[in-house]
Write a structure and sequence with these properties.
Helices cover about 75% and strands about 0% of the residues. By secondary structure, it is mainly alpha-helical. A two-stranded antiparallel ribbon has the order 1-2.
Length: about 450
């Protein structure tokens, strides 16, 4: 990796273009984690499958991406950072084209897996390249740019997915990636050649890779299928949980003592990195789960369409975009730990506002304003926290640390979403059962034979 004194000399124009290429790449990859969420019904109708089968379009991408993200460090050492970035971007574009041309569920899932495998390393590599081309004193600003795309992309995903699917067809949620992929892949080759890293003949850790695929795949399947199969009341879900737990244990033990690990877990020896990642996991998991639950509530309880539910939540991203550059500047003058603490308190306070302010009678702006307020505080948490995490490791371990951090961020979103949706649906069922009893009136024994059969106390209606 580039060191502080070996940052490539670039003109301001070249540096700006390179920054845009890296930012748009990360934005596109993160966007695809949520753009299909509101398009499942369209995809299911177009391919003649059920909605539950359509969710595999989301699952397959998430699993493939999660598996590849922590391999970023090894890929960068083995093939070169810029080369991996350009090839990954090109592959992402090709598989996006194939996804849009898919003719069946099997073909679409296969192409989404390819899309995830190519897109996974792009998130941490774009972050690593931003830090390598910017001088050390500009790292806070570079991190702010990257964090801004990470925050905004999953918010805009449902909006774009719903709008495009409603007006153009679900195929275009994949086709829109193609021109961006061509521009970014070409831009990387032209603009980032001086930032290429040395290639090492790093041996591949086959056993570590197999263990990674095993436990991540089992965990993701458990999270996606658990609610439909009554979680641990189902033997299949229990088996997946056991496989994930055992596979994870063996994976950690193997990678820690392996000389050339596929995933460098030794970055956790840095206290600053470990603490930052733990904070990121909990905060991002909570944030991402709200992106899933709030649109469901708006559509199910308030009658919003998918597009308008996305508009209501999008104000979160609007404020985040406006405040990210400000926070990046403050990071150069204020202790990042203070900014992170302020960001956590801000997120908690705005969540309480939503709890006590939102009702089933709320109008659009009553729903959108707390989102706007919360978005203004998000960069105070994400931007300096990312700087603290990557600033705590050695320069040669930045790619590995970024890969591990993005992997855990992705997994925290999946776990939190599974927990939040389960609590949401269980609560909805309990409330529905309670309301049904109240509306139908108390049950009482049959007046004729006093048997255990019950009837409503409310008068019968013809």
């Amino acid at each position: 990796m580039q060191t502080e004194t070996s940052a490539p000399a670039m003109s301001k124009g070249t540096l700006l273009l390179a920054c845009l290429v890296l930012a748009f790449t990360n934005f596109m990859v993160v966007l695809d984690t949520t753009i299909a969420n509101v398009s499942v019904a369209h995809i299911a109708g177009g391919l003649g499958i059920s909605s539950s089968e359509g969710t595999w379009v989301i699952t397959s991408y998430a699993v493939a991406e999660a598996i590849c993200v922590p391999l970023t460090g090894w890929l960068a050492r083995r093939f070169g950072t810029v080369r991996v970035f350009a090839l990954g971007m090109a592959g992402f574009g090709v598989f996006s084209l194939l996804c849009g041309m898919a003719w069946s569920l099997g073909s679409l899932v296969a192409f989404r897996i390819g899309q995830g495998l190519c897109g996974g390393p792009l998130m941490p590599i774009s972050q690593t390249l931003l830090l390598s081309i910017f001088p050390k004193e500009k790292h806070a600003q570079a991190t702010g740019i990257w964090a801004m795309t990470t925050i905004v992309a999953p918010i805009l995903g449902p909006i774009l997915g719903g709008t495009i699917s409603d007006n153009w067809g679900w195929h275009w949620i994949f086709f829109i990636n193609i021109p961006i992929a061509i521009i970014c892949a070409t831009g990387a080759v032209v603009l980032l050649r001086k930032a290429e890293t040395k290639v090492e003949k790093a041996p591949i850790d086959t056993i570590g890779l197999m263990l990674l695929v095993l436990w991540v795949g089992a965990l993701q399947l458990m999270l996606d299928l658990g609610r439909e199969h009554d979680w641990f009341g189902n033997n299949f879900i229990v088996s997946l949980a056991v496989i994930a737990a055992i596979g994870f244990s063996f994976f950690v033990a193997w990678e820690w003592f392996e000389k050339d690990p596929a995933v460098n877990l030794k970055v956790f020896r840095y206290r600053g990195f470990t603490v930052s990642v733990i904070a990121l996991v909990f905060a991002y998991g909570t944030f991402f789960a709200s992106l899933v639950v709030i649109p469901q509530w708006l559509q199910g309880a308030l009658g919003y369409t998918a597009t308008w539910a996305g508009y209501a939540t999008a104000f979160n991203g609007v404020a985040a975009v406006m405040m990210a550059p400000v926070v990046a500047k403050l990071s150069e003058k204020v202790d990042p730990r203070l900014l992170v603490s302020f960001g956590v308190l801000w997120l908690g306070a705005t969540s309480l506002i939503r709890v006590f302010w939102w009702t089933s009678d709320s109008d659009f702006w009553t729903l959108a304003l707390p989102q706007l307020i919360q978005g203004a505080g998000m960069p105070f948490f994400f931007v300096p926290l990312t700087s603290l995490a990557l600033g705590a490791v050695e320069e040669s371990e930045v790619a590995s640390a970024a890969g591990v951090m993005n992997f855990l961020r992705t997994m925290s979103g999946a776990v939190a979403t599974a927990i939040a949706t389960t609590v949401w649906y269980d609560g909805a069922q309990a409330t529905r059962a309670e309301l049904s009893g109240v509306l139908n009136g108390p049950s009482r024994p049959c007046s004729r034979c006093r048997c255990t059969a019950t009837r409503s106390s409310s008068p019968a209606r013809s």
